[in-house]
Amino acid sequence: MKRATRRKLGLLVVIAAIVLLFRPAGAHMRAASLLTRFQTPGDLGVVARYGKHVVAERSMTVQTERGPVPARVYSPVDASAADAPGVVLVHGVHHTGIDEPRLVRFAKTIAATGVVVMTPEIVELRDYHVDPRSIDTIGAAARALSGEVHRGTVGVMGLSFGGGLSLLAAADPRFAPHIGFVVAVGAHDDLTRVSEFFATSHITDPDGNPQPVKAHEYGALVLVYSHIEDFFPKEDVAVAREALRLWLWEDRDAARARLPALGPIAREKMERLFSAKIDSIAEEMLTELHAHVDEAARVSPRGHMAGLRAPVFLLHGAGDTVIPASETLWLARDVPAGLAKDVLVSPAIQHVELEGEPSATDKWALVHFMADVLAQADRAERR
User: Fold this and answer.
1) Is residue 244 part of a domain?
2) CB distance 274 to 247 below 8 Å
3) Exposed (0-12), middle (13-18) or buried (19+): which is 346, by Cβ within 10 Å?
4) 285 plus 326 within the same structural domain
5) Domain count along the chain
6) Which of 255, 256, 361, 377 pairs with 64 at a CA distance of 20 to 30 A?
7) pLDDT tens, position by position, 295-333
8) Are residues 314 and 186 in the same domain?
9) Which residues of the chain have a pLDDT value below 70?
10) Which helix (DSSP H) or strand (DSSP E) does residue 190 occupy?
11) Local structure of residue 91 (DSSP, 8 states)
12) Rounded to two decimals, what is the model's pTM?
């Protein structure tokens, strides 16, 4: 037997033994099945079959105040899933949006546990902007999905910056009646604080303790891209935006091919960005941040959670170098008292995906967290 298969069998034996001590066991087995399938897609030979459903996929549109936006729905289709609850899954900052392969796989694995999953296209996040308009899209998606599944409320699970925006949607009185719970994975609490981290690699937890994390250059590149006109001469902005967009898309050759079209100063700065020499523009980044504090506040949960009524589940990777785990600790303080149902900072996660081969203890903590989420989803009342 292969070592990887033995490890998976060992994990499932441990989980099965622990689950027998807990109720409801079904939720924990569904969570274990979900996480194991997500980590090893296509390998179902050793996965417990509690909650395993055939999944159908279809496209639809969600009506927002700005017009229709595309969305995808993943539904369990067998008869036992006819009464399935719903969850809106919100992607993070990535140009592929709802087509991002990891998002699609995660949506399918959740749906296979007996949950209807909707993934709305967040246009602003797809173009590397954290924008208040995204809050409207998330809220409209929750309203639409609650009608689809004929339940009073649905859950919203937001990834990365989509997590902070999901919390803001749940706190918005226009959408709060449709959102029964929120799961924020690798989310931000204060965009200005996170942006300062991008520039300096310095950030503290709520107790004032500095966190030993070096910022990934990706965050700084997204920050520059989202305010490109503040970093490049007017005549170079269009080409600089295209070059940096291609770099973020990981089309490095095409990005470098745009460099000759930039003026000498702009070209030298772009080359530094491509080389991840973030320190060389740190002061410029901080100046830009201070000019946009009010704008950042509008997309930050910090100070905007008073209207939140839904239970909240917070999950973060301990070694996250894009949005540090200290942001989840800040969120746990900023969420109104009694609403933070589960807070987990896990070494098993790197930003918003599973990391390496976690210990059995870390895997169990994730299983227990996801079981709580699935149990919360099941509690949504039918209309």
Assistant:
1) yes
2) yes
3) buried
4) no
5) 2
6) 377
7) 999 999 999 999 999 999 999 999 899 999 999 999 999
8) yes
9) 1-52, 79-82, 351-357, 382-383
10) none
11) -
12) 0.87
